[in-house]
Amino acid sequence: MALYRLSDMVRMRREALGITQDKLIEIPSEAVKGDNIICSTDTLRRIEQGKVTRVKSDVFKKIMKRLHTLPERVYASLFVTTPQALNIKPKIHVHICRREYKKAEKKLEKLEAMLVSDYPRNQQYLVERKAVLAYRQGELAAEKYLEILWDALRLTIPVLDQIDLAKWSFNRAEFDILSDIGNAYSNIDNVEKELEFLLKLKENVERKYMDCAYYIVWHMRVLDGLSHWMCVTQRYEEALEYCKVGMEECKKWYILGQADHFLYDTAWSMEQQIKKEDWMPEKSGKEREELIKKERAFCKKQLVQAYYLSIAQGRLQGAERIKKLYENLYSEEIKLS
């Protein structure tokens, strides 16, 4: 299954580059001898409207070149010399998630020997994976890590510095790098830059140009980043709103996703609001005490759910983080185990 529709890819990338339909179909005269028109404007219009499902190979390749895009129809894989290589890639991901960095490095070395060396997507994957491993092991500062990740994106998006991130249609590998960039921003002292970046990604994802499965995953990643940012910067009402949308997505699609993160941020945000003297100023005396008791019981329930969801997904470090907050807030309660 394709990551997204050809119509969306062509239209979004053309608009991100600020090129009209008439301009897109023109090939610079110095770049080709003879006919310098890729196709008619009507054909391009029909492609962008999704009325053309099959495009001639030479037309497709020329359009992709004008959009500074690699001319493959499939965007989810590497270019390998042996099929066995594709079995190694998910294992590397699992090792990194489990913090088994040395095992990941060994498998990455093995995979690298099976990749076509001068292929941009392969180069991008290797650069990104090596940077992640170095960063996770404390061998790269966040600033340098960010620089490497942006350079990795430029391997497949040479016009990256000319486009609006909210308008470009990214493939899976590119969005994974963007997610890494969002995480890295949280570790440098530039919160406004991080927020600007996350809001751009949110606008991008909510264009829904990707397959449903990818949309759900990417949307929740962005909402997770935004809710965390709002918690850190003490904008708790906004954090609660992002968490609410995130949980609605989890329930709608019957998936766990970032549910444990949203539950944690919800409990944290509500507890911080309750501590404020100006919280619920219209309430007073016994009525306010009852409301606080009710809200804290809800927060406690959120953290218990978050803890067991985190355990169920194998996020042991996250579960420990939730447990510490729970025991700090509700020390009189039975401890989580």
3D structure, described in words:
This protein has 337 residues and is mainly α. The protein contains 15 helices and no strands. It has helices spanning 6-17, 21-24, 41-48, 57-66, 85-97, 101-112, 120-136, 142-154, 172-185, 191-205, 212-232, 236-253, 259-275, 285-312, 316-329. Helix 8 (142-154) runs antiparallel to helix 9 (172-185). The longest helix is centred in the last third of the chain and has 28 residues, at 285-312. The chain is globular and about 80 Å long. The two termini are 42 Å apart. The mean pLDDT is 90.
Silhouette: globular
Helix content: 55-70%
What percentage of the residues does DSSP assign to strands (E)?
under 5%
Largest sheet: none
The counted number of beta strands is 0
- Assembly state here? single chain
Structural class: mainly alpha
Separation, N- and C-terminal Cα atoms: 42 Å
State mean pLDDT (0 to 100 scale).
90
Poorly predicted sequence stretches spanning 5 or more consecutive residues = none
Radius of gyration: 24 Å
